[in-house]
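Quick sanity check, Probable endonuclease 4:
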Amino acid sequence: MRIGTHVSIAGGIEKAPGNAAKVGAECFQIFSRSPHGGPVKPITPDVVKKFAAEMKKHKLDTFYIHTPYFINLSSVKNNIYYGSIAVIREELERGSKLSCKAVMTHLGSFGELGDKEGLEKVGVSVGKIMKGYKGTTQLLLEISAGSGRVVGDKFEEIAKILDHKDVKKHKVGVCFDTCHAFASGYDVRDKKSVDETLKQFDKIIGWKKLVMVHVNDSKGEFGGHLDRHEHIGVGKIGLEGFKALAHHKILGKLDWILETPKDDPKDDPKNIAILKKLRKG
């Protein structure tokens, strides 16, 4: 189990490994472009060379990319729908150039579509993203908090997308977000609840699909569908829950990426240190 965090690429994507090492991260996550849209800097051979050198320099070998915030694979607006498909595919291609392990994405909101129709549209979308893809970076679907009819707040919804005829032939995995799962009504506050929740995950989705973890405490209440991340041990999940998660037979072997608040430069090192201590004990 490696513990990392989301880091900035300000000044160039090749700055990310150094930013990760600075806070004690053992792996890391980035946005390879602005999460809000706008111009995208190409991944040139020179960028690839510099990035690889920085990874080696800081003794890091694994990182992840998060897609931008505007993704919506069930949008009825063609510019958003097809734009989302194109951007996710581009991120997979960009990630492959940089030897990124996986790209994770939110799925969007059902909006005016019914759940069944919306899930079908997402399945078709993911199929379009993966069609003809030959890269090495894996696509991960992230579990959501479920606010505003967001897609993927239930394990059954993720399973249905993964089992879609256009998706199941491809190697698409899952990112388990502790805050999102908790907000969606999957309890992870102690060993008993962690074991029960992850037993459900295995039954409905399957361990082989689980690739990495977003590790965030929750500002919102259990089952409240509030997507608000909190520092480890400060929110409604609490330290007992994260200790149980760290020692779980499956989650305890995966990469953990923090997306906790960054109000102070000491926040990331502090949260990473807490998780490392929980990992030991």
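Posting the structure with no commentary besides this: Residues 96 and 129 are 14 Å apart (CA to CA).
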